[in-house]
Amino acid sequence: MPRAEFWQGNKAVAMGGIDAGCRFFGGYPITPSTEIAEVMAEELPKLGGKFIQMEDEIGGISAAIGASITGKKAMTGTSGPGFSLKQELLGFCYMAELPLVCVDVQRGGPSTGLPTKVSQSDIMQARWGTHGDHATIAYAPSSVRECYDLSVKAFNMAERFRQPVLLMPDEVVGHMRERIVVPDAASLKLVNRKRPSVPPDKFVPYLADDDDIPPMAAFGDGYRWHVTGLTSNDFGFPTNDSLEIEKKITRILRKVDRFRGEIVEFAAESYEDAEILVVSFGCVSRSALRAVRELRSRGVKVGHFRPITIWPFPDAELERIISGSPIKHVIVPELNMGQLFLEIDRAVHGKCETHSRTLLNGELFKPARIMSYIEEVA
Amino acid sequence: MPRDDVMKWVRSQFMPHIWCPGCGHGIIMHAILRALSALGKDPAKTVISSGIGCSSRMPGYIDACTLHTAHGRSLAFATGVKLANPELTVLDVMGDGDCSAIGGNHFIHACRRNIGVCAIVMNNNIYGMTGGQASPTTPVGAFATTAPYGAVDPPFDICNLAIGAGATFVARATIAQPPMCESLIKKGIRHDGFSVIEIMTHCHTQFGRKNKRGRPLDNFNFFKDNSVMKAKSGGMTPEELAGKYVVGELYSSADSEEYTKKYEKIIEKAGR
To answer: Which range marks the domain in which residue A12 is found?
Structure first.
């Protein structure tokens, strides 16, 4: 039965993960994400799951990856500095094609920065933080309910595509408490990784099906296979053959790209007749929507677009909205120096004027400030 | 050729291996496979984790569930594997760099937790794969490409480090004692807790060429001449023991419960 709760965003992240089947959490305490680990420490053992506080951030993600290889759905959670530390191991997951959910509750940076204050400045680190080409999947919730829903979706996408999925609430969303109607866990549509359909002696661990995604065995279930961060062939063993290298890397990019439609989510409102479009995500979208609705009631033709998927960025979706409406100005308020603006500016293809509005002092955008940005161009 | 029961564990399609002719790592791999075979282990229930470097290539040659992780992180991966599925036999093969430099933190914490993983540290006192740089176990004064005037930093004693951090089975052998390697690895795998077996090996290519041990046999003789059995070492003075490798079972304790068994009790407690 659905039930009403008064939860913090971080708790909803943890509970959504558990309801999606997460049974292992490896992590290390860091503000403002620690509550996720605390909830996992309390809830997982009740379900026979395992929680381990490792000796550092890298250990946390490494243990979670180890658990994933045994067939468990696994999560790690962190914030800015810890997210930096985990980058090499995220790369390992992209290369070895291992499902994992990594939560990054965004705080101010660089370095230790602002542990208890908000920012949205990990957008580009999420995309390019680890070396080498890879396909990033990242979600940015803007409410407690969305923390829950996107935690479920993050696990589904990780299992579906055999790669890490990033869940990136900002500090305000992670720490905000609000009423949430929690769906009945039994009603959730869950995805589990494809299992091999051939016996162990016929198993070729990285031989992909038609969808470019290879079935995944678990250590301990009878299949013997090799997992490595080295560029490998279909058999999972290291290769220096240029054709095999190209085959592997193009496939791990293509497997996500071709199913982009399953991954990408956005929310848009009152854009059909809009002349001004505000594009914002996470906590900023809450202030922006307030501003947009207030000005709409006063007759200003303004709309809102919220990318829920940060990566892949919903560029085609945004461009379609701009092409199909009289939008002349796009305003992008964000809590960084214009990281997502780069993507938005690229997506509009010069069809309208774009305005970056940044705030990087640990504070929120107040609705009045966003209203003034809209009035400046109206 | 190794025995058939040993060859059953080898991915022989990858022979010849990448190690230099005369490398000590093959002696250690052979000892590990004899131990696994003697214990009747099922390759499909045996996980072998490794980090980065020459040592880390070993799992690729073993026909089991093998895991070649990132530099220094093999024990953190192994911890996740064992905790997630305690039924698995988990071995971790590391080099001295993996164990005592980049992965030093994971090493001491795995010791502290007493998780049921058998760690085999292949200590050749050098970073071999990258071309002979000093490691945390390079002896003071020994030459390396990053210690052209002799190593300055005092080396770690990996076994003492493990005992100090709480490992419950700690042993040492050298590649000059293959049967001892096998028997200690067997004990380490059977041990219900975290076990550390340091095996002194050599890199004649990188360490040896700069330190007058350029032939494999020089190293074999060096280890043979400088090994002292644990039982005999008790009667020797510190001066007599200087530069010697005390070999055999150095420490063993059954007082501390294995980590995944302790966690099962947490699950029971949380369920109440």
So the answer is: 3-187
